[in-house]
Amino acid sequence: MAKDEYESLLDKSSDILSKSNISEERLKIPEPNIIREGKVTIVRNFMDMVDMINRDPKHIMKYLMKEFGIGLNLDGKRLIINKKVTLEEFTQKIEQYLNVFVRCYECNSPDTEIKKVGRTNVIECKACGAQHPINMSKELTGNEADLEEGKKYVVQISEIGRSGEGRTTYRGYHIFVPGVKKGESVRIVIKKIKDGTAIGEVIERINKQ
Ligand SMILES: [Zn+2]
């Protein structure tokens, strides 16, 4: 990738960053309290989590059912999942749900509601007033603390994008890395992060394939 292309990629991303007003606010939903009994997974505090999310439990269950591809039942406050699910898997699905159906797409506030505008379901933010149609392809952005600007990480490039930049997924982020080859492992420093996308600059080549 030519240097000016890299610069323009960075410019573009800083442009996006300056337009956004990322709220640090996070939903303080309780950690899932999960136990496994044989082939069944029980989330003991499911309804406590749902109360904080402020969405119809049926909607959340429908989503989880689809994601896990298995039946779910409510038993009082407990959610019964008819297969083995790890705490990490469950937490990731809940995060995904929050990203798609709860958090404001502009400011990230969880203080939103779902409204119907014409035939479209939109998320309306009570904090900033933004309205966005629900975007099912909105991907998991993960915990932003997991990846930080200015910090170094070792990643392996999984593919090369259209502009010749390397791409990979790491800690739930899509990372663009100019000047690398597919399969190459590199140490990068994160230059920019915006939602689920980050730009990294190579500081060391670990191996070439
Ligand atoms: Zn907002």
Structure description:
The protein is α+β, with helices and mostly antiparallel strands and 209 residues long. Among the domains are: 34-109, 2-Layer Sandwich (Alpha-Beta Plaits), CATH 3.30.70; 142-207, Beta Barrel (OB fold (Dihydrolipoamide Acetyltransferase, E2P)). The protein has four helices and 13 strands. It has helices at residues 3-19, 46-53, 57-68, 87-102, and strands at residues 34-37, 40-43, 72-75, 78-81, 112-117, 120-125, 131-133, 152-156, 159-160, 166-170, 173-177, 185-194, 197-207. A six-stranded mixed β-sheet has the order 8-12-13-11-10-9. A four-stranded antiparallel β-sheet has the order 1-2-4-3, covered by helices on one side. It has a three-stranded antiparallel β-sheet with strand order 5-6-7, with no helix packed on it. Strand 6 (120-125) and strand 7 (131-133) form a beta hairpin. The chain starts with a helix and ends with a strand. 21% of the residues are buried. Mean pLDDT is 83; it is low at 17-26 and 141-145. The site of zinc ion has 8 residues, from loops. Zinc ion is lined by residues 104, 106-107, 109, 125, 127-128, 130.
Q: Averaging pLDDT over every residue, what do you get?
A: 83
**How many β-strand stretches?**
13
CATH C-level name of one domain: Alpha Beta
SSE series: HEEHHEEHEEEEEEEEE
Strand content: 25-35%
Shape call: globular
CATH architecture of one domain: 2-Layer Sandwich
What are the low-pLDDT stretches, counting only 5+ consecutive residues below 50? 17-26, 141-145
Q: How is the largest sheet built, in terms of strand order?
A: 8-12-13-11-10-9
Radius of gyration: 20 Å
Bound ligands, named by name, code or SMILES: zinc ion
Helix-and-strand structural type: alpha+beta
* CATH overall fold name of one domain: Alpha-Beta Plaits
Largest sheet: 6 strands, mixed
Oligomer: single chain
